[in-house]
Design goal:
20 strands; alpha+beta; globular; five-stranded antiparallel β-sheet
């Protein structure tokens, strides 16, 4: 192969066999049947065909002339993709299909054909700008880039907006909007390998001309901007999900997104659920997958004060620092090195949290801005330390690079939480269990783990009044969220459970932070999960407990509101919604509800109240 006149020239490097053609025909013929009849796993026949086809491309001489091209394929994450693909990514431009420009084979949803396309990544730009504005920007950029693709006309490529993936999915439609150039191979008319590889080479020639003016694209990505390295959160989050999956653990994308967003909003998160669901593993995997540090403290049932975690003065007047104080001191010392630390308080409620964690709970709410960004508390230790050599422990705070994650089981062997604890934490519950999901397709390699900048973990503000609002649209969103919370408070008032300013601020800030990775608030099936729905679930419903008539009124009112916001709120309507939930199989997300997960949990609480005369949020 030689490079002449701005393009690579082929020199009899195409195979005379039709391996690629055969693979494409088999996929188009068999994908829908496999989707309907086979489990989604690394052993299903279609997944193997995609892997083998990607491997065939990688080893083909036509690709060997492009050493910066990586070949990736996907038939979905945890469930079948409607529009599977095989992508060709130049690492000078991008390592992810979520951003940048790349070449890709896109299969129609009805498997009537496959397109070879030159396309833009959609996720990052949509997350940053919203669907409507993001699609407009993608469309405008596609039109500009087509000016450099006119040579593809000679190969039968179309340079217009008429690509049709035969799909109803939002992601598929986003692919269509972002397409720069495309060529259709219909199911019954797949060309031979020579033609396919020549077409691909034509696209890669255009790709090369796009990348080569800025040969050091990776250098550009890592350049210093305003004193900080450029960091793309969406790309790194996708790498994090890949790291977790390859590690062999099963989490929904929205669960990881919810946890990371909660931790970015406030450094105190409680993970609840039945035993064996990965409550302790998730924070450990996220910490390791983002280049952070993780420590685990196991709570003992006999803890009645903070001496075990913060320390005490012994009979010799020597201060004996506790485990959490040691970790906080280490985090404080390494803050300048930008290391993020997570401490897991395992089985947190096996002792009474208010007894051994009182000082920490107070200091979490006593944080103030630091000069270099982030928020730091006052010194944790309140007891007097006499010895001079122990005075360093009296200066230890909760630094901005330290987060606390508690794991809890809610059963007869544990203690319930007071409002003081619940008000200060984001509570994420793991109740969605799919025992059939034991084998997940894995990538061949784990991308290099990049340390997330410490700024990524810092909230934009800890009080809404101190938030720097980014434009009138964000202000409008904040006002809309507050309107919803005012309505929720009206329904909570009969039981005196209404939320205060702290909860209001944290729910709004959580929802705003979630926008930065909105594309990952989805189930494995691609169903969107509303961050505000999760915020209500995490911050408000755990407060509701009891069996009184006022609790009954609160639950029925919130249930109707969360389902359809119907003004005709009464117990009969609540019963109808619960019957609908039962008919759906008592799911954790109620179909057709405005806030599906809140509505489903309220149905469960309503059912318990009717059967047992008492209800609580916890399973």
């Amino acid at each position: 192969m030689s490079y002449q006149n701005g393009r690579f020239q082929m020199e009899n490097q195409y195979t005379s066999s039709n391996i690629i053609k055969n693979f494409l025909e088999e996929i188009l013929e068999q994908y829908l049947t496999a989707q309907e009849n086979e489990s989604f796993s690394a052993n299903n026949s279609i997944w193997k065909k995609f892997e083998e086809l990607a491997s065939e491309f990688k080893t083909n001489k036509a690709l060997q002339a492009h050493p910066t091209i990586n070949v990736k394929c996907s038939i979905g994450m945890g469930n079948w993709a409607r529009v599977p693909w095989i992508a060709f990514l130049d690492n000078r431009e991008t390592n992810s299909t979520q951003n940048g420009i790349y070449a890709v084979f896109l299969f129609r949803e009805d498997m009537s054909g496959v397109y070879l396309t030159y396309i833009q990544g959609v996720t990052s730009i949509l997350n940053q700008n919203g669907t409507r504005e993001g699609r407009r920007l993608l469309h405008e950029k596609a039109k500009k880039l087509r000016k450099d693709c006119e040579s593809l006309n000679e190969r039968g490529f179309q340079l217009d907006d008429e690509i049709n993936l035969k799909t109803t999915s939002g992601l598929g439609k986003n692919y269509q909007v972002s397409t720069i150039a495309y060529k259709l191979y219909e199911k019954d008319n797949i060309p031979d390998d020579k033609t396919i590889l020549e077409d691909l080479q034509s696209v890669l020639n255009v790709y090369e001309r796009h990348v080569s003016p800025s040969v050091d694209k990776n250098k550009e990505k890592n350049e210093i901007k305003d004193g900080k390295s450029v960091f793309d959160l969406n790309t790194e989050f996708e790498n994090l999900l890949n790291y977790i999956e390859i590690s062999g653990f099963v989490f929904e994308p929205w669960q990881v997104a919810a946890y990371v967003t909660a931790l970015r909003t406030k450094p105190f998160v409680i993970l609840a659920g039945i035993s064996g669901t990965g409550k302790s593993k998730l924070p450990s995997l996220v910490a390791k997958g983002t280049g952070g540090n993780v420590n685990l403290i196991s709570v003992k049932p006999d803890w009645t004060d903070s001496s075990d975690i913060l320390g005490y003065v012994n009979l010799q007047d020597e201060f004996q620092p506790g485990s959490l104080l040691r970790i906080a001191k280490k985090a404080q010392e390494t803050e300048k090195q930008k290391n993020h630390h997570v401490v897991i308080i395992d089985e947190m409620n096996i002792a009474r949290v208010e007894h051994y964690f009182a000082e920490i709970l107070s200091q979490i709410e006593n944080r103030k801005p630091e000069e270099n960004g982030g928020f730091i508390s006052e010194p944790i230790i309140v007891q007097h330390i006499n010895r001079k050599e122990d005075q360093e422990w009296a200066q230890v705070c909760l630094p901005s690079n330290l987060a606390i994650v508690g794991t809890v089981n809610m059963d007869e062997s544990t203690h319930s939480f007071s409002k003081k604890v619940l008000d200060r934490a984001f509570t994420l519950e793991f109740s969605d269990i799919n025992l059939e999901q034991w084998e997940i397709p894995q990538s061949e390699t784990i991308n290099e783990i990049n340390q997330w900048p410490i700024e990524t973990w810092r909230p934009r503000a800890i009080q809404l009044s101190k938030l720097k609002i980014e434009g009138p649209e964000e202000k409008q969103q904040i006002n809309l969220l507050i309107e919803k919370l005012l309505k929720v408070n009206d329904y909570l008032k009969p039981a005196q459970l209404q939320v205060g300013y702290r909860t209001r601020d944290e729910i709004v800030l959580y929802t705003l932070h979630a926008k930065e990775i909105m594309g990952f608030f989805v189930t494995r099936e691609g169903v969107k999960v509303d961050p505000f729905d999760l915020a209500i679930l995490m911050k408000i419903l755990p407060r509701i407990v009891g069996g009184s008539n006022t609790i009954r009124q609160v639950i029925s009112n919130l249930l109707v509101w969360s389902f359809d916001n119907n003004q005709n709120i009464n117990e009969d309507r609540a019963e109808e919604i619960c019957e609908n939930w039962t008919n759906q199989g008592r799911p954790s997300s109620l179909i057709k509800a405005i806030y599906p997960r809140t509505a489903a949990r309220l149905c469960l609480m309503w059912e318990r109240l009717n059967i047992e005369g008492y209800t609580t949020y916890w399973l």
